[in-house]
Design brief:
- The structure is a homodimer.
- With about 425 residues, the first copy, chain A, is α/β, with parallel strands linked by helices.
- Chain A folds into two domains: about 15-45 and about 195-415, Dna Topoisomerase Vi A Subunit, Chain: A, domain 2 (3-Layer(aba) Sandwich), CATH 3.40.1360.10; about 60-195, Winged helix-like DNA-binding domain superfamily/Winged helix DNA-binding domain (Arc Repressor Mutant, subunit A, Orthogonal Bundle), CATH 1.10.10.
- Helices cover about 45% and strands about 15% of the residues of chain A.
- In chain A, the strands form six sheets. A six-stranded mixed β-sheet of chain A has the order 11-8-14-13-15-16. A three-stranded antiparallel β-sheet of chain A has the order 1-4-3, with no helix packed on it. A three-stranded antiparallel β-sheet of chain A has the order 10-9-12.
- In chain A, a hairpin with a 4-residue loop joins strand 3 (about 105-110) and strand 4 (about 115).
- The radius of gyration of chain A is 24 Å and the shape is elongated.
- At the A-B interface, helix 4, helix 5, strand 6, helix 6 and strand 10 of A face helix 4, helix 5, strand 6, helix 6 and strand 10 of B.
């Protein structure tokens, strides 16, 4: 049954307030005026995929790039050729591995992200302290070669299990895999080792995935699962004006069921909490290809901001690959601490922050990506001083569809992002 | 680049063994002979959607059924009519709520699942001990009425947030929601309150989701996200011979990338670990509509079996809805404890069971759904006495594609499920 059942009941006070707010919303075209302006600005900007080479840096820095299977095979073979010649010369062998330690990381304000400096460490086979690591490295190079030859993708767990005898612990093969990515100068996904998928997407987007044409506007209410191997995503096309990045599954579901993207042309994406590598790569790829703004809808708490920071700045651990994983210019649409009063969120839907929340909030306040934006600082200060947080779902107190029918349209109409 | 790159290297011993095993695999048609036989058997069986009414039980039992929005509205209005008349008679009001306590649960061997007996408890408004619950119940009835009128779906969290002042804790609204489902005699999804989605599906399956035609054979490598509201899934069509239920994301990825379903016509489904309600409802719906066997690929450990038990028997908490959530006749394809020796899984890929694993294994051995199948008992006894477990990924020790190219085809060819 798709026809709404027509029975009437009187509205509650909260619903009346929501109805009043709803009357402020103009036509979809008028609502989208500010978004269109933002899109224009972004189109005119230089591409965010700015590389290290474009900068005139005083010191050498290192960043990995996406390479195709053939190029990775060449890199592996070149590395093994060096090893083999060294052995034939009677000199044994050693790998010169870039250091991924904190001391070798550098925040580059020009790129607004963390990159690796150029220090490396020797990993000779003929040393008791590095012998095992040298063997692990050789084995991982061999396995990566096999994956690229067969053109298949596996998980880190699969890689570990191909030689449990040798690696003993998955921590060993995982660490060596990141070393090998740095060593070969390519991204971990270029090595055909992928993360498991968690994200879903719906909206005004079509693309090809391993050849199949995917139309995200015809994905029902559940959406399309974001593939673990983003290099199989090609032919991205869209008439969306913006990407709506949603922290929570529940909000995604509401927007998908209400087909929010039909009225306000957008692509809706969620990684269901802490973002996985595949979702981050996918967002970045969409952003680079389509050059449209990314607006974020997260909980009004330090954890929501931490999630934004992972999308925007990446994690320390993967800093060698920050150029492919991060989407720097995400706009914070909501739910912002100042929204709580502005939208009269009932006191009961505001939750007290724990001591840990407040500590996390204060730490975030120190971080570059917050400091870089005075408005973000102001919002975070409101959060910390008021000591209250709120989830996206707090908006449900005005009715189940308040999010899709009132809150988001009003936010867009007013261009209320920072 | 989709063409495999043609460089040769010598095979390892493990890979030679895998090649030898691969040579045993006959044509796809021959591999599928046993599956076809099983399908025929299942087609001839009476539908598993056997209701309580069909049984001549000595005592009254209670089970909920799926109802459409109109029917739920009628139930809610009838309940409120009773309440209103009682108030107008000056008698206040009370709800007669079915008990969901353990003492009111009954395992029915005829149905091979747990149902509720018919004891109920009064929930009068005019009693200090039940006053709040009576109010919660009234409020949830009102919210469900709204959802069914608007024909929208929300999560349990959304429901809680519509009246935080009243419910105070989500535990309160969650418990009342299950009470209301029992009280109205319908499933929780009929109330338009859904779980968040986690599962994905690929393979020989088409269906309509909220009107959109979904072709799971054209879903690339990431698959289609299973929708949270399974009642929006209609028009299920498939030429698959079986459903392959996979515990882990990584195995799903391998099979999806290798397009396993092209050679062996099947539907591949995973809930990525512990199954959520949406995936269980979806599996059951596929099974009922298509009447094809469900073969399970889980880790060879007690946790893998526990996951099977949730698909097959459901959880105690949702026993009032066991008839819609469970798929009783799942076949255990692998990885079974006896496979470890049979397929020569290297010792290093076998993990020692912890004391907790062994305790869980022993508890499982007592359970009806294991006891009902002598072969399952035997396998579980092998696991407990050998004290070793293994993950699906242990098969990667013979090469990354051993699972899709050797293990599964051999298992199918031999009809090796129990």
């Amino acid at each position: 049954m798709s026809k709404a059942i027509s029975k009437k009941r009187p509205l509650t006070t909260d619903e009346k307030a929501a109805e009043a707010a709803k009357r402020q919303i103009k036509s979809a075209e008028e609502v989208l005026v500010h978004v269109r302006k933002l899109s224009k600005l972004i189109e005119r900007e230089p591409r965010i995929a700015k590389g290290l080479a474009a900068l005139d840096l005083p010191q050498a820095c290192r960043e990995v790039v996406d390479k195709d299977a053939g190029a990775v095979l060449d890199e592996v073979e070149a590395a093994i050729y060096v090893v083999a010649s060294s052995i034939l010369r009677g000199e044994g062998f050693s790998y010169d591995i870039p250091s991924r330690a904190k001391g070798n990381q550098l925040y580059l304000p020009e790129l607004d992200r963390i990159v690796l400096k150029d220090s490396t460490s020797q990993r000779p086979f003929a040393s008791t302290s590095t012998c095992r690591k040298a063997v692990f490295t050789t084995r991982v190079l061999g396995l990566v070669h096999e994956l690229c030859m067969k053109q298949i993708h596996v998980t880190k767990r699969d890689l570990f299990y191909t030689d449990v005898k040798l690696f003993e612990d998955q921590g060993n093969s995982d660490a060596i895999l990141d070393d090998v990515a740095c060593f070969l100068g390519c991204t971990r996904s270029s090595l055909h080792v992928v993360a498991s998928e968690k994200g879903v997407v719906v909206g005004r987007l079509t693309y090809r995935e391993d050849g199949d044409l995917i139309d995200c506007q015809r994905m029902g209410v559940g959406g399309k699962a974001i593939p673990p191997n983003v290099d199989k995503v090609t032919d991205i096309q869209s008439d969306a004006l913006f990407i709506l990045l949603v922290e929570k599954d529940a909000a995604f579901m509401r927007l998908a069921e209400d087909r929010f993207y039909n009225t306000y042309p957008c692509i809706i994406l969620t990684a269901k909490g802490q973002p996985d590598v595949a979702s981050r790569l996918f967002l970045r790829k969409l952003r680079d290809t389509l050059r449209i703004p990314v607006l974020a809808l997260v909980d009004s708490d330090p954890y929501g901001l931490k999630i934004l920071s992972v999308y925007m700045k990446g994690s320390m651990n993967m800093s060698y690959d920050s150029s492919n994983l991060t989407t720097p210019d995400i706009k914070w649409l909501g739910v912002r601490p100042s929204d709580l009063d502005r939208f009269n969120i009932p006191q009961q839907c505001r939750l007290p922050m724990t001591d840990e929340d407040i500590r996390t909030g204060k730490r975030l306040l120190e971080e570059d990506f917050i400091q870089a934006n005075a408005e973000w600082v102001k919002e975070l200060e409101i959060m910390i001083s008021s000591k209250v947080k709120a989830e996206i779902q707090a908006l449900s107190s005005f009715g189940f569809q308040y999010l899709s029918q009132v809150y988001l349209p009003l936010k867009l109409q007013e261009g209320d992002w920072i």
